[in-house]
Amino acid sequence: IGVNAVILGCWRIQGLRRFMETWFRHCAIPQPRPLTLLTACFSHSYVLAHFLPNMASLMVYFGPVKQALGLHQATAVYLSAGIMGFASSHVIRLVCYHHFRQELKPSLGASGSVMGIMAVTYTCYYHQTHQEMMGVGK
């Protein structure tokens, strides 16, 4: 959450704006940069509509994942889910652009990462609840 907050603050510094647009949001065309698949996972430009809901969800769901998997693996889930989210978005945007001439806009945000963390939390919780319901482990 701290890294996301610092990067949000960097978006507010006028002198960093061009740097942030180049390296902290993912764009499929004209010049895709693979590194932005990772850096965009920490980048937000709107506080109320995007940053706060993502960080509130992350605060709720990251703890159980960290407890179940450990800090390093929970961080790996966050990063991999974000990268996969942006990679999927990249492909879908290109298909829509080529087949439907839909405008390509750069994307950013932790939504994919947060969804990955939520999925792991629900998977662990469901498994635990299911075992309790079935009387396994008693």
From TrEMBL:
<dbReference type="GO" id="GO:0004252">
    <property type="term" value="F:serine-type endopeptidase activity"/>
</dbReference>
<feature type="transmembrane region" description="Helical">
    <location>
        <begin position="76"/>
        <end position="96"/>
    </location>
</feature>
<dbReference type="GO" id="GO:0016020">
    <property type="term" value="C:membrane"/>
</dbReference>
<keyword id="KW-0378">Hydrolase</keyword>
<feature type="domain" description="Peptidase S54 rhomboid">
    <location>
        <begin position="35"/>
        <end position="129"/>
    </location>
</feature>
<dbReference type="InterPro" id="IPR022764">
    <property type="entry name" value="Peptidase_S54_rhomboid_dom"/>
</dbReference>
<keyword id="KW-1133">Transmembrane helix</keyword>
<comment type="similarity">
    <text>Belongs to the peptidase S54 family.</text>
</comment>
<feature type="transmembrane region" description="Helical">
    <location>
        <begin position="108"/>
        <end position="128"/>
    </location>
</feature>
<keyword id="KW-0472">Membrane</keyword>
<protein>
    <recommendedName>
        <fullName>Peptidase S54 rhomboid domain-containing protein</fullName>
    </recommendedName>
</protein>
<keyword id="KW-0812">Transmembrane</keyword>
<dbReference type="InterPro" id="IPR050925">
    <property type="entry name" value="Rhomboid_protease_S54"/>
</dbReference>
<dbReference type="Pfam" id="PF01694">
    <property type="entry name" value="Rhomboid"/>
</dbReference>
<dbReference type="InterPro" id="IPR035952">
    <property type="entry name" value="Rhomboid-like_sf"/>
</dbReference>
